[in-house]
Every structure is written in C-alpha cells, then in structure tokens.
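Much of what follows relies on a compact textual record of a protein's fold. Here is one such record, which you should read through line by line:
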Amino acid sequence: MQEPEEKKIALELLETEQAYVNRLHLLDQIFYTELMKEAKIGKTVPEEVVKMIFSNISSIYQFHAEFFLPELRKRMEDWNCNPRIGDVIQKLAPFLKMYGEYVKNFDKAVELITAWSEKSPPFQELIADIQKRKVCANLTLQHHMLEPVQRIPRYELLLKDYIRKLPPESSDRGDAEKALEMIFMVAKHSNAAIAEMERLQNLWVVYQRLGLEDDLVDPSNELIKEGPIQKISTRNNSTSEKYLFLFNNMLLYCVPKVIQVGAEFQVHLRIDVDGMKVRELSDTQFPHTFLVSGKQRTLELQAR
C-alpha cells in the first residue's frame, strides 16, 4: 500500500528536523564551544565577541534537540494509531519566537566574523580548521549560520503542503491550521524585530550627523522626512541653504557645517510638532514657499 501524501510530508518534516538539529549541534557544540574555549584563554578574540556572533544559538539548539525533535519522532512512531502532527507543532510554536533575537543579530554576526578574521589570525585559523572537518561538508561558518534564519519559512512551507494534502475529514486539520497561523505570526514577529533594528540603526546615524546632542538622542523618536530647504530672508530678499529633519515630535532646522568634522549639521532651532502649523504662501518672487509656525518661532521656507 502506498503511504498517504500527508504522511510523506510529516516524514519529510522529521527528516529535515533531524538534519537541522545536526546543523545546530555543529554551530553550538563545535563552533561556539571551541571558539569560546580559545577566547577564554585569551588567544583569539574577546569572549564578548564570540557571544555576540552566536547570539542565543544555545537556547535554539536545546529547544530543537530536547523538545521539538523528540516530540516529532514520537509522533511519527505512533502514526498508524494517531496520524497527526498539528497539535505537537501548535504546542511548541510559541517557543519559535526565540528566533527573533537570532535573526535580528544575523547581519551583525557576519560582520563580526569578517572583521575579527582580519584582526586576529588565530581566530581565522581556528574557524578554517573547523571548516575543514568532515562534519562541515566543505561549507563556511557563515553558510551554516544562515540555516536558522531559513528554518521558520521552511516550517511554513511544509505545513502549508501538509494541510493541502490532508483528507477533508482529517481530525488534524483544525490543529494544523492553527499551528500554521502561529508559525506565520512567529515569522512576522522576527520580521518586525528586523524592522525595529533597522529603524534604530538609521536613527542612530541621523543622531551622529547631528552631533549626538544629549537632548535629541531618544530611541523612541521616528524620523519622517529630511532634506535641504531654502530659508527666505525678507530683510534683503535673499535665500540661504538650510536643512530640515522632521521627526514625529519635532522639526529640526539645521545649518550644514562647512567643515564636516564629527557632525554634518548644526541644529539652529527646534520646533515642537505639537501646536505647529504649516501654511502655503503664494509668492511670485519665491515659488513653492510655505510658513512654518510653532511655539518657538515662525520660519519662511522655500522648497525646491
């Protein structure tokens, strides 16, 4: 008799999970452990760097090796009397939120490996030595580290396939659909973590361009728009080049620095968005002009 289609997919899930646990073992028990051992003796890189590269790989490895894989294996052994996997995945899916941290850290980890390989030959040699071993299958550390990033989308695909192949009357349908929904939420969760990290990085770059002024640096601020602007001087009918940064809570009116050492701009004025008004002007001499008035001051500006 031919195996039912849904069982083939469930077996594929189990087989790929076994291979994945082997990959996690390589990352956590071989790469991380050996690099950490050398770091402790002070031969390669600071311990902190090794921890930053591998993020929370130990927790991920433990979860898959000690919980997820054994549960799946048990379920496949019982398949003939209990043909279902949806409930197992549903029970363990919330733990996959751990991936948010790892995924968020991935780019930084790869940068650290590159930077420290150049800085510390012993570090580079140790990685090269591990990569030569049979268990690495001629692949680099970076390649192996990509696997956890790709694992959750893989679950999503396999589970979608599994649901598609389930007979309409299957008792596993409800649980499997719920599990898929949970995995979809986990994927969204790690994408949101990446988006938040990128937002903070971009914000930090903006703060550096503004000279890291204490009262400006706030991680909750959101940059909405920035760009050059002309300031109109009504006294002598001329314009001068200025630069605006619009945040969710303030408008920064800046002057580009001629000598760009450190900061790129000097903040001349800060207008609170709360109570700020913007009004378009019809000036034939200066087209595209508008008036920004806030508690602090009123500015007449011209856009390009």
User: Anything to note?
Assistant: The longest helix spans residues 5-41. The longest strand covers residues 223-233. DSSP finds eight helices and seven strands in the chain.
